[in-house]
Write a sequence for this structure.
């Protein structure tokens, strides 16, 4: 097996202490396995993309000693690949157009006394649009036992999600015409030959959807490892919206030592080289190929 890992930031602002943890964990895991590590710029959500943010992120990563082993992939250039995957799913009768607005979905969930009122799409348009114009396109999820997706996360342990009751048929193409993150990430991971996904635990909940999509597209399922997210002082996930400060490009070492500490790794080092040597060896003890 040739290990291929990735860091896939959305360029919605500069890198901060939270995104550094995901970058570092994915980088250390790749190095601990003697594998390669690539950066993918997840700018599929054009309205959220901030001009210049991706280049700034790549420059910061370079200052912090993390260089993509291959030229970064930009999702904004990959429309044809997403379209081709979508057409394959369409040919297999796995997708259907949906005319529901958010409001209508919320109302029908309230009427059905659904427990996961904000999560599971109730399947209103499965059998047709009922005269409404098509807005989004959804992937049909299986019913019954087949809806239960199980995987073992290398950090979080065994996971189960019932796609039918907890998620419902999910969007592959959004009402605004953009490709959904779930489709883009699965197509891109498959094409890049990603064997190991290491990212923040806020994406744990998306993993079952991605595994199911891989199965629909005949793509292999990578190993997953979700690291704890960094929270702001008020307990929310650290992000630009919750006031995360951009990383100082000129002071990488302190921020790296802090990110490693968040991952349970204590290292002291005077240089980037010494930091990566020590941190990779500590990571390998827990998550390297010989650790299991
Ligand atoms: N672009 C996503 C984010 O920044 C990460 C996607 C992934 O790692 O699968 O939250």
């Amino acid at each position: 097996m040739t290990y291929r890992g990735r860091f896939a930031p959305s360029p919605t602002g500069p890198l901060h202490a939270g995104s550094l943890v995901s970058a570092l964990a994915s980088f250390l895991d790749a190095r601990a396995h003697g594998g390669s590590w690539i950066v993918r710029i997840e700018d599929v959500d054009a309205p959220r993309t901030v001009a210049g943010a991706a280049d700034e992120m790549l420059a910061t990563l370079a200052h912090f000693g993390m260089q993509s082993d291959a030229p970064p992939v930009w999702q904004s250039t990959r429309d044809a690949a997403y379209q081709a995957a979508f057409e394959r799913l369409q040919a297999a009768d796995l997708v259907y157009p949906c005319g529901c607005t958010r409001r209508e979905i919320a109302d029908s969930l309230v009427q059905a006394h659904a427990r996961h009122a904000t999560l599971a799409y109730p399947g209103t348009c499965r059998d047709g649009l009922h005269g409404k114009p098509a807005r989004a396109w959804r992937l049909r999820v299986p019913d019954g036992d087949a809806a239960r997706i199980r995987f073992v996360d290398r950090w979080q342990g065994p996971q189960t999600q019932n796609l039918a009751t907890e998620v419902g048929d999910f969007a592959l193409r959004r009402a605004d015409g953009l490709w959904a993150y779930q489709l883009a990430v699965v197509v891109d991971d498959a094409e890049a030959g990603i064997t190991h996904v290491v990212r923040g635990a806020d994406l744990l909940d998306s993993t079952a959807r991605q595994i199911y999509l891989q199965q629909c597209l005949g793509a292999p399922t990578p190993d997953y490892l979700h690291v704890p997210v960094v929270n702001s002082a008020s307990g929310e996930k650290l992000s630009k919206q919750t006031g995360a400060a951009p990383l100082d490009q000129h002071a990488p070492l302190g921020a790296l030592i802090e990110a490693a500490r968040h991952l349970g790794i204590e290292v002291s080092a005077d240089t980037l080289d010494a930091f990566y040597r020590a941190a990779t060896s500590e990571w390998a003890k827990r998550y390297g190929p010989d650790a299991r």
